[in-house]
Amino acid sequence: MPLDQNRAETQQEDRTDVQVFHSACPHDCPSTCALEVERLDPETIGRVRGASANSYTAGVICAKVARYAERVHHPDRLKKPLRRIGAKGEGREAFEEISWDEALDTAAEKLRSAVAKFGPETVWPYYYAGTMGLVQRDGINRLRHAMGYSRQHSTFCSTLADAGWLAGAGSKKGVDAREMAESDLIVIWGCNPVSTQVNVMTHASRARKNRGAKIVVVDPYVTETAKQADIHLMPNPGTDGALACAVMHVLFRDGHADRAYLEKYTAGHAELEVHLGAKTPEWAEEITGIPAAEIEAFAALYGQTNRSYLRLGFGFTRSRNGAVQMFSASCLPAVTGAWQYPGGGALYSNSGIYGIDKTIIEGLDRVDQQTRILDQSRIGPILTGDPRDLGDGPPVTAMFVQNTNPMNVAPDLGKVREGFSREDLFVCVHEQFLTETAQMADIVLPATTFLEHDDMYVAGGHTHLQVTKAVIAPVGEARPNHWVLGELARRLGAEHPGFDMSEWELMDDALQRSGYADAQSVWEGHWDDRVEGFDDAHFLNGFGHADGKFHFMPDWSKIGGNHAGMPTLPDHDTVIDGRDDAHPFRLVTAPSRNYLNTSFTETATSQKREGRPEAQIHPEVCKEMGLETGDQVRIGNGQGSVVVHVRPTEGLRRGTVIVESVWPNKAFIEGIGINLLVSAEAGKPNGGAVFHDTAVWLQTA
Ligand code: SF4
After folding, report:
1. Shortest-distance Cα residue to atom 6 of ligand 1
2. Virtual CA dihedral for 105, 109, 115, 116, nearest 10 degrees?
3. What residues contact residue 293 under an 8 Å CB cut-off, 6+ apart?
4. Atom 5 in ligand 1: which residue has the minimum CA distance?
5. Which portions of the chain are predicted below pLDDT 70?
6. Of all protein residues, whose CA lies closest to atom 8 belonging to ligand 1?
7. Cα(199) to centroid(ligand 1), Å
8. Nearest CA to 111 among 419, 402, 443, 364?
9. Whole-number pLDDT of residue 5
10. Which of 57, 111, 204, 604 falls 20 to 30 Å from 33 in CA-CA distance?
11. What pLDDT shows up at residue 70?
């Protein structure tokens, strides 16, 4: 039955058979947009729109999801289970179709025999954010814990940002994004919402239109978002901490620090003020490349604007010093006291407000703290037997992979490729397309998309819980993650009540444990907005630490074990892979507009709009190297080299190179992608992939 018949009818235009269903975008994007999906028949969707009744989505979604029919009905969707009969990585011809029973029996038998030889930790269930639904994404952990398989430290995305935000604020929440409409200054720092979180622009634009708000973007190149800004500050990659310190220097120096606020709501402000004495705009200019006058001007604007809102993203945290960078930026509204004002304060993520108890979904009641934890970003070193990761434990000889494509997205791709090439490694991949990881698998299982299964979603960029139901029947023989996990559990003898429950029962259980309405009620209402009141969201009832204060001198040891040498106050932490004579450039692998990780790399429209992988290089550098548009350049470091086409670009500093991502490896001239150059070293203090922290050399190719 359609969810919202009245609205559906108004959208039917001349197609009286079209029904419109509520759904939510499951992709790895903080917006988690509320969607309205046209269903043309029980197996076919039409157009996808943003839900206009949702005050965050406000009827606006990105183009790639608006054309989702192209992805869900793509001829290359996996429709049947496959068994590899040819060489690894050889494409569809290397597989034959088999039945679900045969596929699942084989996978279970391989996992059992690996355990018999090496013990349960030899199996590594591996997953990430191909879908963000709490049931379909996280259920793999139930199988992991029930069987005693190796655990996963999930570090691709938010680990560094979390560490930095929690260091100061103490809890993962902030001012509702819709409140930007009441701001006079919006600083979009380290994110490119035009490409990756389109709704931020909706709310920022409202403030600009209604209040004349200024928009400032901090990013190392001229992104589509930066093009719309009033001011663009362009730091060298990995130097945002220095920028933040210099801004705070000016705030204290020029009387913009709110001393009453500092006294009441913060700890360590006296030490901070002394520390910032030497962090002048000139000092920061040397590090960031931003002229001191620009830093002065921005600091004055920020200091004079009570209703100043920081939208802090992930980009500038994907660096060895990323946690310190996030922490340093997050200190600004605690210095000016902007948190006290409507439209003032900051947001990194509101995902900490939900408190959903996933005990049964994830089998958290079966966690054995003795079982080893492997860092997903170090999959290359792990699969190639690095003793720093494996210690005395067994090698990984069997993997079950859902919702992620490490053969493209993981750091140190050379080692990832070498690892997946091992003939003694059994791999089962459950996916929607024959990704490059699936091409290395022994068994491939076809997976449903979010429109073909039930699930529920929380968000980082807003405050709504959303419950969704399947809109169409599964494509071909595709099956939901939850179903596959149950079938594997039955064959493996994994015991947990969650395997005997439906998706809907799992949602109800989690919601009931967490004090929410039942899933049906949330589904009927489309969403449940959990927005906090002003004083809580603005931390006027206290920050998340036990003393209720914002901490300018964080205890990094409480956040992660690898904290030695971290600055005790906001700073420029020099642990980055800095330029030297042999590597005079810094590489940033920023997200492209039409791909989302490697989702959408299979659709023709996204491919056409993106064109090809290109290195954006400053025109002066191109001139010195004799490079012109379309020439090939080799980018390299100690891990290898990659060849791409050149795009001379004014909108970056001489020492910065941008390669927007994530492209399939085969899109690169020599068949290996940009993450070949990215280190698998874990960021401090709690891990985290350092995707934008790479010093490189350039050569004409
Ligand atoms: S903006 Fe993000 S959440 Fe919204 S539809 Fe696009 S990918 Fe999905």
Report:
1. 62
2. 150
3. 281
4. 61
5. 1-16
6. 25
7. 8
8. 443
9. 34
10. 604
11. 97
